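YM 10:42: Thiol:disulfide interchange protein sequence, as discussed on the call
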Amino acid sequence: MTLGLVALAARAETYVEGQHYKTLPAPIPVRDASKIEVVELFWYGCPHCYKFDPLVNVWKKSLPEDVSFFRSPAVFNKVWKAHAQAFYAAEALDVSEKMHQPLFDALARDHQSLNSEDDLAKFFAQYDVEEAQFKKAYNSFSVKSKVEQAASRALSARATGVPALVVNGKYRIDAIRGGTYEDMLKVADFLIEKERQAKGS
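YM 10:58: structure's back
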C-alpha cells in the first residue's frame, strides 16, 4: 500500500459521503482534465465567504501541481449577477488581484450598495479603472458568457448557498456538510487525494 493509499484509508472514516460532502448526480465538465479541479462558489456580499476567503488564499498556495483552483461567482439573483459581472469584468481588465479584496470589503464587510452598473463603475474608478473602460468590459459578450457559465456551474453543482467547493466536477462541499471553514478545506484535501488515487497517479 502506497503512502497515498495509507493516508486515504486513514481518513476514509473521517469524511463520509452525504455528511461531509455530496456526490453530484452528474459530473460537471472541468476546464483541464489533466488536473484535479477545485472550484470555489462564492458571492462578494456573503459574510461567510468573506471569512472563508483568507483561509482559501493560504490553502491554494500550497496546492500541488496536479491541482487547479479557481473561483466561480454564484448567480442566484439580479444583485449577485451584477457582482458576478464585476468579477469577470475585473478579470477581463486584468485587475482581479487589485479588485478582489476591495470588492469583498465593500460588499461583505461594509455593506455598501454597489448593485448597479453605475455604482460598480464608480467603485472601480476609485482604483484607477476608467468608468467607460469598466462598462465596456462589464457589458462585453465574453463577460456575459462567463456569467452564464458560472450560473450553469452552480446549478449543475446543486448549490443552494455559499461558500461551497466543487472538487473535480464530482463532489460538493458546503458549510453545513463540511463543518467549519477549516474542515471544508480538509474535506477538499481528502477528495483531492481520492481523485488522485482514482487517476492512478
